[in-house]
Amino acid sequence: MTLLAFTNAFAGSLLDRAGEKRRDPEWMAARLADPAARAIVLWQGRPLVREDAGAAARLAFLEGPRARSLVGGRDERLAFLGLNGSAPVLAVELEGAADPAESMLEGLGRFEELRALAAVLPVEEAAIAACAKSLFDWRQRHRFCSLCGQESEIADGGWKRACPVCKAEHFPRVDPVTIMLPWIGDRCLLGRQAAWPKGRMSALAGYMEPGESIEEACAREVKEEADLAVVRVEYHSSQPWPFPSSLMIGLFAEVAHDQATPDGVEVEEVRWFTRTQVRQMLAEGEWDGIKPAPPFAIAHQLLKAWAAR
Ligand SMILES: [Zn+2]
Hints:
Elements: H1 25-33, E1 38-43, E2 46-49, E3 62-63, H2 64-70, E4 78-84, E5 87-94, E6 110-111, H3 114-117, H4 123-141, E7 153-155, E8 160-162, E9 169-170, E10 175-184, E11 187-192, E12 204-207, H5 214-226, E13 230-241, E14 246-255, E15 269-274, H6 275-284, H7 298-307
Helix pairs in contact: 6-7
The structure holds zinc ion.
Zinc ion (ZN) binds near residues 145 and 168.
């Protein structure tokens, strides 16, 4: 049976992660060495895409043994992403300052920013590239055991780090972020961060804190960033966001009044828009000089779903 859920960019992988099996070292060693394995390649967080796919970008897949040889057989820089049928799908991470697409991988493709690829890669390919990027980011940032400081060792095909001294086990991080569209009656509120491209306004957002429910985090962020009181929180969808490993939790936040004030720190400007204005903004790419977030961002999908109500 198919999962009935709204799928944002970076979700929608078709692979079987084989979570139960990948804990078995023998099974995992056989998958990593499987001649039928295929591997994607990342360098500086960017996936290798094929040169020959034209405007419709496609990931470049290498044969497993070749990919493994690129990292000198070091499983530290190899990740098991899952099974496609019975064939393992892997990812390798290349290091160094020089672009490998101009040396060892010449002719196979080029490395491109995942953010830019999100709009053009097939859904399932963007999802596995995002997964690999988050896993490798975690590996780089968490090399040492956070309990005793010893360098930890990779296990479970890249999904765990085990400390050889204190025996602690560490798992990849996912950092939840609430992202919400405040609304009242027939209007919704968008905010603007100073760093955004000219004219861009989008949903409010913020990291969740320990001891908070999703609803409480949403209400706190809306209060902090726009000085509005949330009275009802409604879930829309979620999005893995591999920069480096967030999970965006998309929400509609009904508010008690419309006296919004930006905090002047994270949000420099807030503005109310009617449903008609938002529909026009989405249909034409802008309204009164204001542009929404791009379609691969959950903020765009929130706005679109609200406008369609
Ligand atoms: Zn330790």
